[in-house]
Amino acid sequence: MTESKDFKIRASQKAADDSHRLKILKAISTYETKVDEMKSDQFFDWSVARDKATEIKKYLIDNLPGLLREFETKITNTGAKVIWAKDKEEAQQQIYDIIKQHNAKKIVKSKSMTTEEINFNEFCESKGLDVIESDLGELIVQLAGEKPYHIVTPAMHKSKQEISQLFSDKLGSAESDSAAELTMVARKHLRDKYTSADIGVTGANFLIADSGAVVLTENEGNIRLSTSCPPVHIVIAGIEKVLPRLSDLSLFLPLLATSGTGQQITGYNSIFRGPKKENEIDGPEHMYVILLDNGRSNLYSNPELREALQCIRCGACLNICPVYRTIGGHTYNTTYQGPIGSVITPHLQNIKTWNHLSSASSLCGACTQVCPVGIDIHHLLLNNRTKINSSLFWKIFINAWSTIMKRRRLLNFAAKIGSPFQKTLTKFLPRGIKKRIPQMAQKSFSEMWENNE
Amino acid sequence: MNSRSQILGKLSKFEKPGISSIPSEINDKTIFNVFSDPSTFVDKFTKNFQALNGEIYIVKNLEDAGNELVSIISSLDNKKCLSHTTEVINKLFSINHTLSEIFDILNVDFLDSDIFSTYEVGLTTADFLIARTGSIVLNSLTAGGRRLSVLPPIHIVLAETNQIIPSLDEIFKNDFTSIDWSYATIISGPSRTSDIEKQLVLGAHGPKRLIVILIEN
What we know:
The complex is a heterodimer of chains A (about 450) and B (about 220).
Chain A: H1 3-15, H2 18-42, H3 46-62, H4 64-77, E1 81-85, H5 88-101, E2 106-109, H6 113-117, H7 120-126, E3 130-133, H8 136-143, H9 160-171, H10 179-196, E4 199-202, E5 206-208, E6 213-218, H11 222-226, E7 232-238, E8 242-243, H12 249-261, E9 268-272, E10 286-292, H13 296-300, H14 316-320, H15 322-327, H16 338-348, H17 351-354, H18 366-370, H19 377-385, H20 392-406, H21 408-428, H22 445-450
Parallel strand pairs in A: 1-10, 2-3, 2-4, 4-7, 5-8, 7-10
Antiparallel strand pairs in A: 5-6, 6-9
Helix pairs in contact in A: 2-12, 9-10, 16-19, 20-21
Chain B: H1 3-12, H2 28-31, H3 41-51, E1 55-59, H4 62-74, E2 81-83, H5 87-95, H6 97-102, E3 103-105, H7 113-116, E4 121-125, E5 128-130, E6 135-139, E7 154-160, E8 164-165, H8 169-173, E9 183-187, E10 192-193, E11 201-202, E12 209-215
Parallel strand pairs in B: 1-12, 2-3, 2-4, 4-7, 5-8, 7-12
Antiparallel strand pairs in B: 5-6, 6-9, 10-11
């Protein structure tokens, strides 16, 4: 069965799952209340902040190769090593080389979508390495043998009861209906993992060109612990993550926090400029930054689609999307779900397999409206759709349709001939139980208008 | 041809350098609700820091700071405390002998994280406090490295009121970025998570309590 057919089956099953819908609506409505409050509390005017962020991101896109070179030079000067990876396989091999070089066995990893992209966990496990997810939500989905449900809130689809059962089965903890107690189970489970790990692996929220810095934002402190205790720090970052200046953070950190979780600023925003310095007491001896392309340059080479690279992965378009809310994150079967995921996945992976996602949208435009960096998401989806049907028949059909629609007389004529066929035709059209296609009116609106009826 | 030149080569074909000039630097006053009256900074920081579940003690001088610290520690079950050394911390320990006895000083013996993990309290100084967000800014050179402020379950920060700045943009305008640290962080409240049914829980992996002792000057 094809991915596209599978997608439709999964989508119709999830859409009819009431308990799934309840859990998602509960989580998203909590999120929405906080976001609305924070937008008005924190910002003079959200749209001013958004315009400024968009301006900086557009500058970044126009100057991407230059800014990447600047970042590389600056961070190499701090003693970190920069490695470029074209695709998943190359990134996996490069990481494996580092692991072997340091004779590492235990890896502690923080939440990172790039590591999902390159199947980091599966790869390491296949090599007999021990990988621990340290973010609470990621730990939950790892223990459950699942993939993240959401790019910001990986375990959004799990209720307290389900998590309690999971922890009891996998970690042997007592069952509990308190989120605080369950969090403490995870804290206890992970505590010595940080101090015993050989390597800490993270993603990157921002790469700063003017100061050669990697910036990571989090609430739990697992990133800070994973980058403080182990002797090696590996960063896996998408090449589009660059910002021109360190000072841009004073806008981007609050913007990401507000759009992502409705916070003013996340709990910890850490700036890394290389491995431990000689005069510092601790920190990793080695730092590697892997710059991952994996299809991003395909997006970059398309003038209509390249603005999708402005994305800061806040998840706002997922939360607002009526399709995401109905079919849920797992239905997409992709690393990046929701509207932005549907835009980029066909280009990061394979357009033939994944372009059905561009039709998983009502084109209502809510995603475009909430995007904090001004990506015209629903038009990009529409743009992807034009790539689905490129057969000769489709081209003739769409050209004929557009010729008719643009000429009043032709349209009237077509409607006249079409009207008698309509009744017969509707009998053969697929339709739902409650859906009836209405009869065509005797006279068209334009005829009534001309006759002043 | 290696991957670096392949990726950069492909990108370079489509870049448009010089099409737009670099956007002006961020001025927080034009974007956020920032307060410019320095006399309100202490109140604003206190209010915003407490809203993030931070605990704050405002004291008149270093002597009072010492007494406050002793009383905080006396209420703990595990009284193992660790500190780095700075001018102000040295001075504090020299005037308060109870503290100088309680605290161990961070040195090369602590390279092993297992020993480090037995400590309940980490005491550090900070670079800045941010009034608008209630945050604390510190770096690995001036705050005893990376672990001291995150591994112990309680993080206590010794700071002075003249370290309060109105908003984030001031950090990056400052000499702060020219100091040769490898790590800096903006801390906003104790460690937290909402990964389980969006309910806020404090103390996910990092410090469960974040305490500021703020000395007026």
